[in-house]
Each structure stands twice: as C-alpha cells, then as structure tokens.
Amino acid sequence: MQILTVATSPIAGQKPGTSGLRKKTRVFMQPHFVENFVQAILDATGGAKGKTYVLGGDGRYFTPRVAQVILRMCAAQGAQRVIVGQDALLSTPAASHLIRLNGADGGFIMSASHNPGGLDEDFGLKFNTANGGPAPESVTDAIFEATRTISAYRILETQDIDLSQIGESRMGDMRVSVVDPVADYAALMETLFDFPRLRALFAGGFRMRFDAMNAVTGPYAKEILERRLGAPEGTVLNATPLPDFGGLHPDPNPVWAKALIDEMFGPDAPDFGAASDGDGDRNMVVGRGTYVSPSDSLAVLTANAHLAPGYRGGLAGVARSMPTSAAADRVAEAMGLAHYETPTGWKFFSNLLDAGRVTICGEESFGTGSNHVREKDGLWAVLLWLDILAARGQSVAEILADHWKTHGRNYYSRHDYEALPNEIAERIVGGLRDKLAGLAGQTFAGLVVEAADEFSYTDPVDGSISAHQGFRVMFEGGARFVIRLSGTGTEGATLRLYLERYVPGPDGLDEEVQAALAPVIAAAEEIAAVRRLSGRAGPDVIT
Ligand code: G1P
Ligand code: ZN
C-alpha cells in the first residue's frame, strides 16, 4: 500500500451552501472533484492525523465510490479510525449521534438531502464537526478557501474495503469500524420516548403510515416502529433505500409525498401519517384529514414535549429559523421560555443547543429536532408526535384545534419559484432591496407595512454576525412575507417567498390556508413583483 500525492488544481464552485456542497452527480464525478473537496475539508480542519471520523450517507447513486475515496484519503493522512455505517448508510441524525457518542472529531455525510438522486440528479457532501452539528460558516468558509488554493491531495493506493459486513478491519494503519447504522440511534430514541406507552398505543389498534420514500429512514423506521413498537408490518412504506430513490423526489411535503397525503385524506385513513426525506432529517406529519404545517408542528411539539420522558423536566427554550412562522414564539411567550430567531440552516442552532439555551429547534422546511443530536431529526419528530398523541389520547385534528384556540393561528405557506435564470432572481431581489427603506407606513393590498429589513443575525453565544439572510416585510397585525434565495438548489436560482398571517381567534381559525393568505400574497406581488418579473404564472411548488 502506497500513499500517493496527486497533483491537482482548484476546481471552481466548491463553495458549501446551506447544507454542504451539492451539485449534479456528474459534476461530483469529474476527475479530482471529490478528492479536492475532501482534501480541502481535511486541510481546513487541521488535518486528519490521529482523528476519528464518522462516515455514511443516504445511499444515493455514487455513494459507495465516494465512501471509498474518503476512507483512502483519511487513511493516507493519518486518521486513527473511521466509523462507517454498514453499506455506507447513515441518516444525518444518526451520523450526528455517532459523532457525539464516540467523541469523534467530525463526520462526512454523503447526501443531497431531499434532492433527487441518480446519475443525472444530485449528489452532496457535508462535513459535521465534533459537536455533531453541520460545520459553521467559519469552517465552511475555510474549506472554500482551501479549495481555491489546493495543489495536491494525498490518497492511499489500496483495494476497496468491504462495507457490507459489520465488523472491524484496517486500511493501512487506520482502523475501520463498520457499524449497524440503526442500533445506536434506536437506543437513543428509547431513552427519550415512552416505548411501553407507544407499544400499547399500537397494540390498541392505532394505525399509522410512514413513507420512507425509498431513502435512508426505511431501515430506521422498520426497526423502531415495526420491530420495537409492534406496529403491523407494512406500516413503513418504500422502506428500502435505493440509489435513485425509485425515481421519487424524497422531500416530505404535500407535493412530493402526495400518495401519503391522498391516503390520509381518503376514506378509511389511518390515524397518523409521516414521511421523511432522503437523509432522514426532515419530517412531515399528517393526521387523518389534517395536514400539520412544519411551523405549527414546531409550536405543538414545544407546547407538549414535557409529556415525553426525555423532556419531562421542561425545555430551556426554542429556536426557529427566521422564515418559520412565529407560532412557536407564541407558545414560548405563554410558557415563559426563551425563544430565538436564526438564519435558515440548521448550523445556526448549534451554538444555542451547545450553550443549553434551547432544547427544541425547527424550520418551516419540515425540519425539527432537539438537543439529543445537532441535526434536525425526522424520526425523532414523528416519535415525539406519537408520544404526545399517546399521552393526550386525542387525534391530531383535536390537538391542533386546541392549540389554535389557545395561541391563535399563524396561517403559513411557502411559494417556491424554481430554476429561475440567475439574473432574473437577482433583479427581483435587487429591486426589493432598493425599495425596503421606503416601505414602512405604505399600504399594499390593504395591508400597512410596519417595518421592512434585510435579516442579519448576531449569534448570542459567540457574537458572530451573519448578514444578508433574507428580506422581511412586516405588516401591522402580525402578517409578513419573506423573500430569500435558496442555498441548496443546483439549477439556476430558487426564490422562496414565505407568507404568514396571524389570526388570534376564536373566529377565523379554520380557513383554507391560501385563501387566508390571499391579502399577503397580493401585497407581496405588489411590492416584489415576483410573478411579473419572472414571467411565471405562479410558484412551482407550494408548501
Ligand atoms: C433548505 C431549507 C432550509 C434547510 C436546508 C437544508 O435550504 O429552506 O430550511 O435548512 O434546505 O435542509 P435553502 O434551499 O432554502 O437554502
Ligand atoms: Zn435532509
């Protein structure tokens, strides 16, 4: 076995986005592309010498190859040990847990999350740090800098290692531990939730459907829901991770998980439905005939988490990303909890979680999680909902109705305009930026602008500032819209328009969401002219 030093040169475009580096698979397959990026990660984080890493991913096309490259590069650069999920599989939350459990120095997660997989679809690679969370901006900036000056990488010349067998082996001087991707994660869940109560729930005939969307959560959901909790076989659908996710778009929202929604709104619907994304960090929950928006889900979980054993002592606080609705803030205020508003992306929660300032976090993009790991966690959210349903003995619809009666309702929707030409997206965003200062006091579609700004976040723990995190236009009465450009897309620009309107109740809590938001949608178009400037009749995806 020989350590090769391979000359290379910088490859443009290796800037990690909201959640690691995501590109078309064929881009990742270019010569040196993976190697350059991995070398940059290692260089930017002080080298691999003596370090322990976790490695796994959502099983998408090209994952087995990339796993071998990462192993060979870690081995060439003196890493002590890599803990790999069997078949190179690990959900993102399970990877986060393994990093923490083993005191590892970091982890490589091969995933493009909810983006489709396959030769002509997307691939991604993200690096998590020793706390188990996504690398913060200081680290991703350093990685990007390293990709711009790279001149060589080091890799071990050796045979592929067999990742299909659980057990210990060596690659050069490095220890390779192939582990069951599910076992440690499932054990963690048993510490947080009342498994006997959940077993009793299923034994009593409670019916559930979990759509794993042919992605990584299949094995996790099968083990936990069907084996440990006794839900009938067949509760988990699309349970085998496939390289192309069976052609599905593994994004758990009403658009891409339509089959689940149809079943939940159809005759003889189960009591509870849920879905997860490609790498298992996102979740969608649905009751019989009742869709739960992620912002509402965060609020309900915050209000009820104390019913689960892992949170019996109460919560330290709650954090949400800026575009997420303020529903969780209302709960926090009512319960006297600290609440925080952070930029989009899970990495911004890490400091708050590490400092013990918050226990639960969430994003409107179907992500919720807690301090048990440093990533959002789809199955965790599903299990917390189940535990709350079991403890309260009510349906999802009853719990939601009760919640809105107590706290009022934040009607909420996100409108995505996908694959816009970059210059059009820039024109829309630039136009809004120019207008911002003059908006306050003006009326649009009957709504009076109270304030408008570009969101900038000062991390309360380390004082770091993240500017340019999206435009907010707030109206009197608690309505608002937000516009920002996606940091995870791989084609053109994706513009996200987030819409929100608060209704205190007791009347008006049961309107159709888009109808309830109509004035905000109209005001946003008057101000930002997304439809007019893009020439699109409407958004591509509404969630
Ligand atoms: C999207 C979501 C964001 C999430 C990220 C990673 O990022 O909006 O909340 O953290 O995916 O799952 P965006 O494409 O908006 O930058
Ligand atoms: Zn994901």
Relevant terms:
seven-stranded antiparallel sheet, seven-stranded mixed sheet, 3 domains, 543 residues, alpha/beta, TATA-Binding Protein, Alpha-D-Glucose-1,6-Bisphosphate, Chain A, domain 3, binds 1-O-phosphono-alpha-D-glucopyranose, 18 helices, binds zinc ion
Question: How would you describe the overall organization of this protein?
Answer:
The longest helix has 15 residues. Helix 2 crosses helix 3 and helix 10 runs parallel beside helix 11. The chain contains 18 helices and 27 strands. Strands 2-6-5-3-4-9-8 form a seven-stranded mixed β-sheet, with helices on both faces. Strands 20-21-24-25-26-19-27 form a seven-stranded antiparallel β-sheet. By secondary structure, it is of the alpha/beta class. It has three domains: 177 residues, Alpha-D-Glucose-1,6-Bisphosphate, subunit A, domain 3 (Alpha-D-Glucose-1,6-Bisphosphate, Chain A, domain 3, 3-Layer(aba) Sandwich); 223 residues, Alpha-D-Glucose-1,6-Bisphosphate, Chain A, domain 3 (3-Layer(aba) Sandwich), CATH 3.40.120.10; 134 residues, TATA-Binding Protein (2-Layer Sandwich). The site of 1-O-phosphono-alpha-D-glucopyranose has 14 residues, from loops.
